[in-house]
Amino acid sequence: MALIKSIFGSLSIMFLIIGCKTITKLQVESPTIENPKSLILSNLKCLNMAEKLVGMGTKNDEILLLVFHLNDKKEALLITGTDILIFEKEDSIGQSLDITIPLDRKLNPSEFLFLLIEMDTERTKTELSHLAQNLLNQRVEPAMLKEKLREDDLLGIKTLSTIKTSKNGQLKFLGMHLFDKYHYEISYEFT
Q: Which of 19, 63, 87, 167 has the fewest CB atoms within 10 Å, i.e. is most exposed?
């Protein structure tokens, strides 16, 4: 009996050690990059639309992505925005963004802010970007920003730091608007 317990104990320890090694091997982190030269936004995927409910809206998502640089004083400076991207259905492949943002060391762009807006009014990209920038610089809370955009729906705000960041990844915008769940993903890479 003692021999069986000894063998069972040895096997248990061996499986525990092997199991720990296996778990360690599976936990691979994304490579990081220090002092990146540029930020590339490659595509925007629509995995779940914000306007699906029968009888409401256009049944299309008209999406605007605005990218701001937060300077040392935490002021939002508009860098770029997409043209309006129209999704008629879920799109797991995504629409190409092809946006490259050079990271000038003089500006010290250590943090970016991304706003994803589903447009429902006749406001232009320029009008929305100016409104968003003014509100961000007044340091309004996201709930107030959402309220000021009115019918144009703020789907999310994300930040991305350039300090010891992952070389690539995705920004995920998930939530619920009215009765519709939405899910968008932006792929990015630092070079």
A: 19
